[in-house]
């Protein structure tokens, strides 16, 4: 099988580029046509209602209201409105068919560029060396972008976990104050520990997401864990005997836990902002590399004649 020549590849790229431009121009036209059809359809419905007043039971009502002239005028305009709506729908059908035919144009254009790139690199063309460099740079940036996106998602989940844990500890702190100073009894102690345990679950999930984030960023150092675990004996005494000493111990642990969680939340939020900025930077660099690659691959328009 004969390989296509460079001229053949350039002609195919130029042909597909023309189709791609046409496709990009047709898409907003389709949107405008759909809006025009909606408007024409509503106008036709309105004219039909007005015209109906000139006949049947509505005729007397129209006469009483002095609307017979308006109804007659609507009847005159109806045929033109129907024709206009039919013409718009025919245009939309034609345009949609052309867009359906051009549906594969973007992928075909990308494939044509890739074929030319391979040809230039395989044949030792001077441009091939730079294209190889660009391919390597693009591959590195695409891989980095994927890691950044996964890390950013993990950071978002971690921040949400820490936020929920802080809310629950805030609620536990209120019950702790009530338990300590107002004699909340077993019920208050039970609710307090229930919220602490729920907060601990959220913290564990958030720390897992932090580990995911650190792994994606190539930082495999172990993060210092945040623990809200209340000593089993302390919890038992707090619930069963509800004495002020265990109440104060639990309250102190809640306050320390909240401080650690807020610090972790703020740090994760800071890292997430940095990840967002870096992601934007990588996307910008990718766009510039794509622009340079296209400039090397897309043939310049040939002068007429």
TrEMBL record:
The keyword Hydrolase applies. Residues 78-105 form a coiled coil. GO terms for molecular function: exonuclease activity. It comes from the Bacteria. Gene3D superfamilies: 1.10.287.1490. The keyword Nuclease applies. Keywords: Coiled coil, Exonuclease, Hydrolase, Nuclease. This is DNA repair exonuclease SbcCD ATPase subunit.
